[in-house]
């Protein structure tokens, strides 16, 4: 038997309860009130000091948050349930662009609920250099700013303000690509305990890397590349247990690669290229099981051998050790790097044979062994040679030779290598070459000295495979 239909009285009661519930929700969560007039005035001062895109007072109306423009984000606050400025973006359309006479917006730091401030490509007028300044430290103690990004400002000048250390809520600090930002890194930045990402790259910063940065235990990314930092790499950086990216490349750093680096077990990207580092790489690099990029090229390492241990980093995708004076053989353990896509060892003092196992690295697409002292038969089969094509460079190794079995006429893939010769003819004529191509012209036999490459890149003779 079907249940009885609900009576009209029951239906009415349910409707009344539903309406009461809706009313109670509206009472419990009233709409946020308009922005406080004092905060509105501060916002307008910021806008007028940076951008001339429009009449900001007219655009703001009584409540800027009621119809925010691109680059302005608001959020409700706790006090008096008013709306507050939470984010400001300047420089890149559709966000407000910056006027030629823009000044650094000190008033922005007085916005009580501001969480993010972006100034990207703002200060570009060479005739109106803007000073990189912050309000007095006493005015920053209540700041809730979590992200500050000051990027690509060629006319922003000055040192990194020491008051940055008073922005205790900061999680992301980016001051990058500002050529006139100079001087040392304030020691107090090492006290920003909540910092997750610190990017000070592409400035003109000098002095040592502060050891106190090792106290930023929650740091995930640290990029100090393309500055003029000097001295050794601080061992305290090894305390950054959460660090995934460390880029100190293109500075004037000296000394060795500290053993403390091997404690960075979360590291996926390590770049120390273009410095003055010397000596052996530290033992224990194989403990960096998540490392994918190891970029150490252009350092005068001083004739040390390549450590076989590098072959035991299972996730390594790029290994760049060029122009660093390494000596001895290429470790056979490199054949174990099954994730490797790029191996760059050019312009060292490497000797001996090319490990045959390199040809079994299925993900390899770029291999440069040029300008070394390697010798013997090139151990790569035709499939490997076809796959790499011009991304394989063996030039500048007079002792290397290639067998007829490795040469497959008609495939038409050029493999750079001025000095790679056919094994079966090298004994009779060391300078003979077979199947070489210069700018599309096939030649056979002895080359006039004037035709040999003037530059490895500009004129590349090739084996025609």
From TrEMBL:
GO terms for cellular component: plasma membrane. It comes from the Eukaryota. Its main location: membrane. Keywords: Cell membrane, Leucine-rich repeat, Membrane, Receptor, Repeat, Signal. Pfam families: LRR_8. Transmembrane segments: none annotated. It is found in: Cell membrane. Gene3D superfamilies: Ribonuclease Inhibitor. Residues 1-33 form the signal peptide. SUPFAM superfamilies: L domain-like (SSF52058). GO terms for biological process: response to other organism. PANTHER family: OS01G0750400 PROTEIN (PTHR48064), RECEPTOR-LIKE PROTEIN 51-RELATED (PTHR48064:SF1). This is Receptor like protein 29. The gene is LOC103635874.
